[in-house]
Write a structure and sequence with these properties.
19% strand, Isopropylmalate Dehydrogenase, 14 strands, binds magnesium ion, 10-stranded mixed beta sheet, binds 3-isopropylmalic acid, single chain, alpha/beta, 370 residues, two-stranded antiparallel ribbon
Length: 370
């Protein structure tokens, strides 16, 4: 039977393929035990595509991405490709997917699971129960702004430059995602910029303030400078519910926030486009961690962020809340049972590799679904 759930799987480089293998096992499990089948296609991106095809992502892959209902992305990049020209970097693959599919809202949750309270470098009292959501704008700002480049000045020295730009619409649409999410959570939104030094930051603040008055007066809105936000995230992260911010600040603050939870290896993300007239929207799901070249190929990477990204995919793209929760619960229970990959080890827990972690998730899923 043809499935109406078209998935494009892009494992990428480094630990990407290793952790994606564990997701494939979860997908097989769903097929067998829950009768949910996906129409799956797998393709190369990043350094793997550069090696095989001479480009970080072919147009054919871009077309598959456009046709897919959801994209599950691994990670791209590594030292092998660091010396290539700017337009040939593996990272171009993810940037192009975000831009061409107009995936403007990057949702990056930072949740501290109870069994992992002691894996954080912060004190347990500060992070216990943490559940915050960063909404990062992901198709605009300095990542894509023009002009950009390196020019030679009259005196012979060079000048490198990039441009931060945001339009009213770009700010409003990502802020709406933040306000809507806040309404489903604790109803608090913090908008983050540098209105004290950047024109575009002051503009961002004005647009969010006006939108709040017009459409979301019931949500508690506050504004914060990005540097202060970094400090507050470490000082008292539980003060936040939803944070909405620009592409660059979101990139930095989400790495910071993820580490509050103990490991980058734990956190999934979703990047959503705008729904079209028929309600369909492009969406990409990826772990926050990168390709981790230092541990690639050793079978020790934590597959949980990739598996949890798949759970987010089920929830946001297919409305399969129950299946998503099942997978999330399986991950928490396995951690609670004391099995850990090296990145989230704590005294009294047992160290396992990538595939044993994957197997344990399947066993737990069997138990939960029994
Ligand atoms: C991320 C990554 C990417 C980014 C890189 C790989 C281009 O750091 O998703 O946070 O900067 O957006
Ligand atoms: Mg990043």
């Amino acid at each position: 039977m043809a499935s109406n759930k078209k998935l494009l799987i892009l494992p990428g480089d480094g630990i990407g393929p290793e952790v994606m293998r564990e997701v494939r096992r979860v997908i097989d499990w769903m097929d067998r035990r829950r009768m949910v089948s996906f129409d799956m296609k797998e393709d190369l991106v990043g350094g793997a595509a550069i090696d095989a095809r001479g480009t970080p992502m072919t147009d054919a892959t871009m077309e598959s991405a456009r046709a897919a209902d959801a994209i599950l992305f691994g990670s791209v990049g590594g030292p092998k490709w660091d010396k290539l020209g700017f337009d040939m970097r593996p990272e171009i693959a993810i940037l192009r997917l975000r831009k061409e599919l107009d995936l403007f809202a990057n949702l990056r949750p930072a949740i501290v699971l109870d069994p992992l309270v002691d894996a954080s470098t912060l004190k347990a009292d500060v992070i216990r129960g943490l559940d915050l959501m960063i909404v990062r704008e992901s198709t605009g700002g300095i990542y894509f702004g023009e002009p950009r480049g390196v020019e030679t000045l009259p005196d012979g020295q060079k000048r490198g430059f990039d441009t931060e730009t945001y339009t009213t619409n770009e700010i409003e649409r990502v802020a709406r995602v933040g306000f809507d999410l806040a309404r489903k959570r604790q109803n608090r939104l913090t908008s983050v910029e540098k209105a004290n030094v950047m024109q575009s930051g002051l503009f961002w603040r004005q647009v969010v303030t006006a939108l709040h008055q017009r459409e979301y007066p019931d949500v508690e809105l506050s504004h914060m400078y990005a540097d202060n936000c970094a400090m507050q995230l470490v000082r008292n992260p539980r003060q936040f519910d939803v944070i909405v911010t620009s592409n660059l600040f979101g990139d930095i603050l989400s790495d910071l926030a993820s580490m509050l939870t103990g490991s980058l290896g734990m956190l999934p993300s979703a990047t959503l486009g705008a729904p079209d007239a028929s309600g369909r929207r492009h969406a990409l799901y990826e772990p926050i961690h990168g390709s981790a070249p230092d541990i690639a190929g050793k079978g020790i990477a934590n597959p949980l962020a990739q598996i949890l990204s798949f759970a987010m995919l089920l929830r946001y793209s297919f409305g399969m809340d129950e299946d998503a929760s099942l997978i999330e619960r399986a991950c928490t229970n396995v951690l609670a049972s004391g099995l850990r990959t090296a990145d989230v080890m704590a005294p009294g827990t047992a160290k396992v590799g990538t595939s044993v972690m994957g197997e344990s998730i399947l066993r737990e899923l069997d138990k939960l679904a029994a």
